[in-house]
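Archive maintenance. Older records in this collection stored only the sequence; we are now back-filling the structure field for every entry so that each record is complete. The fields below show one back-filled record exactly as it appears after the update. Entries are processed alphabetically, and Aspergillus nuclease S1 is next in the queue.

ARCHIVE ENTRY
Title: Aspergillus nuclease S1
Organism field: Oryza sativa subsp. japonica
Length field: 290
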Amino acid sequence: MAARVLPLLLVVVVAAAMARAPTAHAWGKEGHYMVCKIAEGFLTKEAATAVKELLPGWAGGELAETCSWADTERFRYRWSSPLHFADTPGDCQFNYARDCHNTNGEKDMCVVGAINNYTNALEDSSSPYDPTESLMFLAHFVGDVHQPLHCGHVKDLGGNTIIVHWYTRKSNLHHVWDVNVIETALKEFYNEDVSTMIKAIKMNITDEWSTEEKQWETCRSRTKTCADKYAEESAKLACKAYEGVEQESTLEDDYFFAALPVVQKRIAQGGVRLAAILNRIFSGNKVQSS
Ligand SMILES: *[C@@H]1O[C@H](CO)[C@@H](O)[C@H](O)[C@H]1NC(C)=O
Ligand SMILES: *[C@@H]1O[C@H](CO)[C@@H](O)[C@H](O)[C@H]1NC(C)=O
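Back-filled structure field:
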């Protein structure tokens, strides 16, 4: 496999060095775009209309265009920075009471708390929060909670301090999961075309994963969202993602081919669940629980 993948990657590395890839802080732009694009396809008519009305003008009527907004606001809204993730001590579990806080110990300041926060804000017409911002935050954070390394380990900042080589390029474990796996997949399998990758994932949702898909949407929790469950899944997947990875590890085909199916499924789940949350919020049937 390496022989097939490597020459292409060399071209990619040179191109990337010339283009200087932008730094990303969450699923890269592509990951968030795909989650939201998939969600758009699962919205009820009612929810799609409500979402359109809330979108800012610059979105051109497309939720997916706004799904990286929260990353660009991270420095202006410094308080929002811890809302992108929920790291754990490394026991492969997410425990809200233990793990959902910022570095000052402020409760609820993590990605799960944020999903609950913005879901509540959108459901409550008397909420003082800007509903357009609430929608854009919610769409972003539902994506983030599905990225395994956003529920990574506290001690290495969700893999950010684990420096690795992605094939021949310097990266870190967090960035591998945010960006590199998707980038490599786009180059190797999807002709650099995000819409082709989205199509392939959607095909799996209606075919390969059609029976599981209903369960992804199901939310029997008494809390408003099932974000706890999504974080729990990510914390488990994160433990696998760390396996065999050390400082300066070189990650290539073996790692890529193990990670890609996980990444594609998490994007699918993120999209389906974002739609389910928005459908619940805007369907006028807010207590609906499955
Ligand atoms: C809830 O949303 C408001 C408005 O954006 C923000 O100030 C607050 O920090 C958020 N809290 C959580 C836990 O997300
Ligand atoms: C489709 O599903 C199969 C089986 O789960 C998986 O290996 C593959 O990566 C998936 N492809 C996409 C594009 O999601």
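Update note: Residues 1-25, 285-290 have pLDDT under 50 and may be disordered. Residues 2-282 form a domain with the P1 Nuclease fold (CATH 1.10.575.10).
Entry marked complete.
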